[in-house]
Design goal:
TIM Barrel, 10 helices, 277 residues, alpha/beta
């Protein structure tokens, strides 16, 4: 089973995508299942994980409605107000919705890099672990040491690093990111998404530019803790669904068949419990 572990849909008229401005012209329009279906089919992708793009519970409801009507969407990673007084109740209510597999606070946009360690969010995190929901960590390289501490503090919570923590590939920033990604892989049981890399490299990216980053990820996490995601339609800022999929296949050509099967599907299926979802 080929799975895209990270994709988005949005409808601009909903009005809660604060980051999605007209300056992002290639993606500043509506994107829905009908746009993705042929791209995924051409890449051999059979199922996807639909991830939130707005910090509102209303958007999570919108995504769950879309997922209910789309068999190829296997799971939804939504959003909840982690700091709300009734956050645990909100988490439990969302967990009861079909196809909800995880939640994602948009930590990359927060002023406090150590927000994830605040005591106020403990009830929401505990409820997530109780309900079997996963945690998508949308972070930058600077967050990795804190994320490692967070993972050790909440050992019952299944956590995945989105977009390999967004290394600054365009600037060639490899050494510090590689040190910290190796450390978190060794210190925790976190998994990681092989996604978002061409966006961080920019429109002039090449496979060889990406290669050292992918080699670090494969070495640090291994295939059973690494999952491929398109990050569509954000990927359109630097390329396309097809170009990123082809690049990933090229970069993983030296992996065994079993390793590629894990990265392109099995890891995501196990982590998100997609058969159960």
């Amino acid at each position: 089973m080929q799975i895209d572990a990270h994709q988005h849909f949005w409808r601009l008229s909903r009005g809660d995508y604060g980051w999605l401005t007209p300056e992002l012209q290639p993606i500043h329009r509506d994107f829905g299942p009908g746009d993705l279906r042929p791209l995924a089919a051409a890449a051999g992708v059979e199922r996807t994980v639909l991830v939130q793009a707005a910090p509102t519970e209303a958007e999570t409801g919108f995504l769950l409605e879309l997922a209910a009507a789309e068999p190829f969407v296997a799971g939804v990673v939504g959003w909840v107000d982690f700091e709300a007084p009734d956050a645990a109740h909100r988490v439990a209510a969302l967990a009861a919705r079909p196809k909800l597999v995880g939640l994602r606070p948009m930590m990359q946009d927060m002023a406090d890099d150590r927000w994830m360690l605040r005591d106020e969010i403990w009830p929401a995190l505990h409820a997530m672990a109780e309900e079997g929901l996963t945690f998508d960590a949308l972070v930058f390289p600077r967050h990795l040491p804190t994320l490692s501490e967070f993972a050790r503090r909440y050992p019952g919570l299944d956590i995945v690093i989105d977009h390999a923590a967004k290394p600054d590939i365009a600037a060639g920033a490899l050494e510090d990111w590689a040190r910290d990604i190796r450390a978190i892989a060794g210190e925790t049981r976190l998994v990681c998404k092989l996604s978002g890399l061409i966006t961080e490299a920019g429109s002039g990216w090449s496979v060889e530019q990406l290669r050292p980053y992918v080699e670090v990820l494969v070495e640090a996490f291994g295939a059973d803790r690494l999952m491929w995601g398109s990050d569509w339609p954000v990927v359109n800022l630097a390329g396309s669904y097809a170009s990123w999929r082809t690049a990933a296949e090229t970069l993983l050509a030296d992996c065994s068949d079993d390793e590629r099967a894990a990265i392109f599907g099995q890891t995501a299926s196990v982590f998100y419990g997609l058969d159960r979802a």
